Amino acid sequence: MISLPGASSFEVIAIWSVLVISFFGLGYALLLRKQVMACDKGTPKMQEVWGAISEGANAYLKRQLKTIVPLIFVFTIVLFLSVYIVPPTESSKLRFVGYSDESLKLIIGFGRALAFVMGAVFSLMVGQFGMRMAVQANVRVASASRRSFSEALKIAYRAGTVTGMLTDGLGLLGGTLIFMFFGVASPDTLLGFGFGGTLLALFMRVGGGIYTKAADVGADLVGKVEAGLPEDDERNAAVIADLVGDNVGDCAGMAADIFESYEVTIVSTLILGVVLFMTTHELSWIIFPLLVRGIGVLSSIVGTYLVKGDKEAKTNNALKAINKGFYTSAAISIVLFGIVSYFYLHDWRSFLSVVMGIILAIVLDEITKHFTDGNYHPVKDIARNAKTGSATLLLKGLSYGFEIAVWQTIVIALTILTAVIIYNGMPLVYVLYGVAMTGIGMLTLTGNNVAMDAFGPIADNANGVGELSHLDKDARKIMDSLDSTGNTTKAITKGVAIGSAVIAAVALFGSFITDVSNVQIQLGFEKSQQLIETGIRISMPMVFIGMLIGGTIPWLFSSLTINAVTRAAAQIVEEVRRQFRIPGIIERTVKPDYQRAVDICTVAAQKELIPLALIAVLSPILVGSLLGVEALGGFLGGVILSGQLLAVFMAGSGGAWDNAKKTIEDGLYGGKGSEAHHAAVVGDTVGDPLKDTAGPALNPMIKVINLVSLLAAPVLIAYQKPGQFSFGLVLTGVICLAIITGSVIVSKRGGFKRPPRIE
User: Fold this and answer.
1) Does residue 758 belong to any structural domain of this protein?
2) Structural domain contains residue 319
3) Is 399 left (phi over 0), alpha (psi -120 to 50) or beta?
4) What pLDDT score was predicted for residue 755?
5) DSSP assignment string, 548-598
6) pTM over 0.90
7) pLDDT digit string (tens) for 451-485?
8) Residue among 466, 485, 484, 486 at smallest CA distance from 475
9) Is 381 exposed, middle or buried (0-12, 13-18, 19+ CB in 10 A)?
10) What's the mean per-residue pLDDT of the chain?
């Protein structure tokens, strides 16, 4: 099955070993699932609440699937046809020796289309299975909290680890299978795999984010601020929708998001690795990234299994236990990377790049923790400003949001600089490969990162189940502690997700330059006209225009997603107010209509998926068609920089406002119901769509744009030969502009039919 010219017996065994490790990771996920499912589900009341959450989450995912399947079908056909525009690559001819050009196009076309479907299905599986595991776990964590903190922590984290190992296992499985069959021709096919996973992640991030924050904002504004009710009070009609939203947004959305980052980094690394292989004829450029990924899976298995609380522990060491597992995995990984580098690579440059990726993940963790954890100065400072009202609290949160964006971006810049230093004096493609290996290293501990993220909504849901089930004070204290830790772990993993998105995008940017140059060489462009020689020069007006347009896309995308949350939250506010006016709701003699709020959020989220996806997919084609492939390079640079700064700002400020509210609810400055608490709730409400909808949605959006650019670039070059005018490209650009304009209008209206106006 493996076709690698010049491969040693060790390299063949290594590839098969990586494949086995991917199944090992999936087997570990099944083992943990069995352990979690064996735990009890508590009282009948707890199971009643859990049943409502489960039903709402399943209904949302079924509706979402119906919305996106037609678009998946269309893109499958487009990806198959995309290979017929340009001649086959030299690496494809090397893999399939003796085949005609037409046969090669057919093989690569089918491979790319099938890989796209596989990437989409795997991303969907990670999101859906991970969410269902979280739903199964929340009631079990709530039940365990009646017995001990240690048991509740173990169940919550291991349930999250199921999602993490699914991400690891499926991501490694897909990339390895494609590489085993296509060999050095795999980059052509892996583009489809990465695009499928990224597109599904965009759908799940946007839809889940709109759902969860519409419910959360609406529930808080009426329940907490207007009626003065607790967080998860059973009289609030939006409370079940809020708990459902934690799962479809934070679990399904985040899992799919990190999965596609995991895919995209291996795609970009193998593209650059094949370029280096074609130059040096050394397979280590391709084999080493796969070995790193395999080692990462094994390290995550060990580290995640060590996360346990002491049986006699107080309720304040959850983060300590989680960090112990993370740093254990990191240490194991670094040692094993060093061994492989010494005995296989005989070169320390790739090893150093991978280690820098792990260090980058740790540093981003610490920066995010400093600005969003309630134990540090920034969150305490924001909470202190709640004493003078919501305006000063909001301003303080904004200032820290701007600051965290600065530090995280500087850290990423320094990390990329290390790749330049490590490969000093070597051609550009080596430096770009170093950046890609940094991304590989950064996501080495994907199992740990996703487990940390899924832990947050599981703990949050368990807390909601506990309050709605009226559990005793000691159990609630345990769940409050886990919930608070979960807020921090969610913020930390958002920082890693954003950082990995940027590193992956930079690696894809490098792949864009090398791919464009390869096609230009095939089409007979002179050396002075090849992108690898000229570079992307922002001093050129067209490139600068492309960069300016690219910089606007994250802002447009964020505007539309926040507008969608605002519109849906307004409907939830009106619905909760209406139900509060029904006699008996406040007195607890009449049960609220929870399903109505769930339906409002579900419908609102689905309306936004197609318009926003079309903007992400068509905007690079628009720029490339009308302004040229160099301008498209500038466009990508603008998207990456603007998206990084904006995403970190929104995630950081939103996370800080959230934990400032938590510290006040724990008794600071008057506690729940005080004026400071009301101000903090307003801050948290403003921050919710920033940190859980608009900010996270930028991660897959950035990579969708980069992958579409990679797929479209060969077609653009084929019709943009110097000195020639292409009416077809101009027409394509005009059509894209019309569709994007229509998508913006439709999104701002809330769908194809204008929703009823709320008086």
Assistant:
1) no
2) yes
3) alpha
4) 43
5) HHHHHHHHHHHHHHHHHHHHHHHHHHHHHHHHHTSTTTTTTSS---HHHHH
6) no
7) 888 888 888 888 888 888 888 888 888 888 888 78
8) 466
9) middle
10) 84
